[in-house]
Design brief:
rod-shaped; 24% strand; alpha+beta; 295 residues
């Protein structure tokens, strides 16, 4: 939503500036047109004076005795009056069509707005194409396939841990689908978040400096266990079940099962953080699903 507001404000600013510039160009064009009218009127006044003067001379010449010289003078004056050019070109185009300058400016603004809209479209496409994949730095008992979307335990009697390649975004759900269940098992799948960068994760150990783990009987925040049933659904997982994590804008960690919010599992989650999953208890394989925004 912030992207939409920011972009709309930017486009509105461009449209306002375009309106301002077009008004100025039109005002300048109208002023030039008015000046052209005034000049044209002055020129007509001058020519009217000439015509009036010549008319008086012709009238006087025709009222006196028609001597040969006067007849010649009258003819000459008549020819001069008839030869006067009273035509003129009046520029009326500003009233009908916009000037080339206005047209070019408006075309430039339209192109700018088009570029902005294309930029928005590219940003939206990038957001839509974001996917949840696992980082290649995982424990050595994990095999990643399907373009690092599927994680599988190599030796079923040992655990393995995978972590998201990218840091979690606010209000975005990161889910995995259960592909293979191992029964019976004393413990279920564990999942959670950590602020440790994937490249710094221990390969041979599950011990992390900073983590929050959700398990079926409670929440482990570093070395502290909080007994709660928020993740009790982990006991009832089956093939096809979906479990996920979401950090809201208040830094609360939510636990999801099959797309339903089970509640807040932890608060004050550090940022940035990465989603992590521990396999090998009762789950042998999971697949990361596309992320989805929740509000």
């Amino acid at each position: 939503m912030a992207l939409v507001d920011k972009t709309c404000d930017r486009l509105q600013s461009m449209v306002d500036e375009c309106r301002k510039q077009v008004k100025k160009l039109i005002s300048d064009s109208v002023s030039n047109f008015k000046k052209s009218l005034c000049d044209f009127k002055s020129e007509l006044d001058k020519r009217l004076g000439k015509v009036t003067s010549h008319k008086h001379l012709v009238t006087r010449a025709t009222t006196v005795r028609p001597r040969l010289a006067l007849i010649h003078a009258a003819k000459t004056l008549t020819d001069r009056v008839n030869s006067l050019d009273l035509s003129d070109d009046l520029e009326a185009e500003p009233w009908v069509n916009p000037s080339l300058e206005i047209t070019i400016y408006c075309d430039d603004v339209v192109k700018e707005i088009g570029d902005e809209l294309m930029s928005i479209n590219r940003e939206i496409v990038v957001v839509e194409k974001q996917v949840f994949v696992f980082d290649q730095n995982c424990r050595n008992n994990i095999l990643l396939t399907n373009f690092r979307k599927t994680a599988r335990i190599v030796q079923p009697d040992r655990n393995g841990m995978v972590v998201s390649r990218d840091a979690m975004d606010d209000n975005v759900l990161y889910e995995v689908r259960i592909d293979e269940i191992k029964k019976p098992a004393e413990k279920s799948l564990m999942l959670g978040v950590t602020s440790v960068l994937p490249i710094q994760l221990p390969v041979l150990s599950l011990h992390l400096k900073d983590y929050i783990f959700l398990r079926e009987d409670g929440v482990c925040d570093k070395d502290t266990v909080i007994w709660t049933n928020v993740a009790e659904s982990l006991k009832f997982l089956k093939v096809g079940s979906r479990v996920g994590l979401l950090v809201d804008s208040s830094n609360n960690l939510h636990f999801y099962v099959d797309g339903d919010d089970q509640g807040v599992a932890a608060k004050d989650v550090p940022y940035p953080c990465f989603a992590l999953f521990v396999l090998g208890n009762n789950v042998n394989q999971v697949t990361a699903l596309p992320t989805s925004v929740r509000t």
